Amino acid sequence: MLTEAADFKAECDGLHALLQDRDDADFERPTLFKDWTVNDVMGHLHIWNHAVNLSVTDEGAFEAFVQAFRDAGSRHFPYTHEWSGGLKGQALLAAWHGLCTDMEPLWRGLDPERRVKWVGPPMTVRMSIVARQMETWSHGQEVFDVFGAARQDEDRIRNIAELGVRTFGFTFANRGIERPAVKPFVRLTAPSGAVWSWNEESGTDYVAGPATDFCQVVTQTRNIADVGLEVRGDAATRWMEIAQCFAGGPNDPPPPGARHAVV
Questions:
Q1: Exposure of 1 by Cβ count < 10 A (0-12 exposed, 13-18 middle, 19+ buried)?
Q2: Distance separating the N- and C-terminal Cα atoms of the chain
Q3: CB-based burial of residue 82 (10 Å sphere; 0-12 exposed, 13-18 middle, 19+ buried)?
Q4: Of 141, 118, 142, 114, nearest to 131 (Cα)?
Q5: Least CB-packed of 19, 57, 133, 253 within 10 Å?
Q6: d(Cα 178, Cα 193) in Å, to the nearest integer?
Q7: Is 133 exposed, middle or buried (0-12, 13-18, 19+ CB in 10 A)?
Q8: Are residues 142 and 17 in the same domain?
Q9: What was the pLDDT predicted at 74?
Q10: Which residue positions in the chain have pLDDT lower than 70?
């Protein structure tokens, strides 16, 4: 059973709870992420949930979808809006959450190690749904921020932290930079108070602190200067300055102080 499917659904439920009583006008509010509106965020999450679902149900339809999206080029927001039938506000929220709800039982029954196509390199089913949880969590952050709401994370963010650790090498390779020879020790405190750790223990090259803060850095929802992580050593410092756990070309983290809850 693919337990990560339930983690994805729970992440979606948390974002849905934040938005379910909002007026449609609230969905037009620009966030601190590239001025995307809440409608932009939800449309983006919805269309790529659709895409990942196609990757496990209809490979040909998935390939056709990706080609059409690429053909849209810089028109990706108009294309997304057209694809959804012009949905906005509460109607868009309902469609997005309905698909999330349908995905959970389907994905729960899939072989976690089955490899499926994606926009980048193929991934296992397990990593595909973890990537959707990560995307929901990271883009959800700008939505929580714009409403000045504090998100109460749960230990399911371990999936995101694991993804962050696993993409250490990718962070450097994606920029054409030689990866440091040392993999920093990572020691994080979970929302529950549990302690998670990765890589060989080290007192000279490590990242330590709250798991939420680590996830914010690797998803680039916060700059390393704006969180409470303890970072020591050359490899750890270089990594946290440019960490990127999501696919695509190299992206720079937000400048210090640029991403925060709006008050």
A1: exposed
A2: 42
A3: exposed
A4: 118
A5: 57
A6: 35
A7: buried
A8: yes
A9: 81
A10: none
Q: Is 138 helix (H, G, I), strand (E, B) or coil?
A: helix
Contact (Cβ atoms closer than 8 angstroms) between residue 131 and residue 116: no
Residue at a domain's end among 116, 134, 150:
150
Per the CB < 8 A criterion, the answer to whether 90 and 24 are in contact is yes
Q: What is the value of pTM for the model shown? A: 0.96
Residue-wise pLDDT for 182-236, tens only, equals 999 999 999 999 999 999 999 999 999 999 999 999 999 999 999 999 999 999 9
Taken in order 119, 123, 126, 131, the sign of the CA dihedral is: negative
Residue 35 shares a structural domain with residue 97: yes
Domain count, the chain: 2
Question: Would 80 be classed as within a structural domain?
Answer: yes
Question: Range of 45's domain?
Answer: 4-150
* Residue corresponding to tokens 């949880």: 133
209 forms beta bridges with: 188
Please, where are the H alpha helices in 84-225?
Answer: 89-108, 125-146, 158-166, 168-173, 211-218
> Token pair for residue 198?
């990765």
Considering the domain architecture, whether residues 232 and 113 belong to the same structural domain is answered as no
Rounded Cα gap, residues 139 and 219, in angstroms: 9
- CATH number (domain holding residue 92): 1.20.120.450
> What is the residue whose two structure tokens read 């993409």?
167
